[in-house]
Amino acid sequence: MLRNYISNVWAGIGTALVGMKITWSHLLTKKVTRQYPDKFHPVRDKQTPEFLRNRLFVDMDLCIGCMICQRNCPVNCITIETIKSVKDDPDAVKPNGDKINLWVNKFDIDFAKCMFCNLCTEECPTNAIYMTTEFEYTSYDRKNLYYRFSVMTPEQIESKKKLLEEEKAKKAAAANAAKAAESKQEDKKE
To answer: Which of 20, 43, 79, 102 has the smallest number of Cβ neighbours within 10 A?
Structure first.
């Protein structure tokens, strides 16, 4: 009984000494303090896995304004606004030669809300939105986590809206003229 008690005491002292050895080794080494958000330089290529879910990026040359990513977002952190392209618009051609059907005048992502679920990237028909390897974007202010991806200037947005209004007015005038002509023909028949 006494022998068992003494062996337990020695086991406790031995365990404490092993722990203290680790503590003393850290007490005697040089301290390294990293000023995390300001001076942080990880070796990204070696530390981040290939399919890690990180910051989203939107290639506006590929985006067609379909809003599938906005509808798929479970936390509503993506905001998209579009303007319909008109037939007579000379700018309505993409660099690859395709016709632009919708102008994306607003494409914003609030990363303070984003839960990096990857649902927006999975369903994008043009692969315009994708996850990048950029994982470090801390900020002291939430406003800095609101990213705007649209490349349209306010002047471009106003000109596209004006073109659309003019086309709507022309269509309405043509429809009214067609109705008036139709009513004249009905009057002649009577």
So the answer is: 43
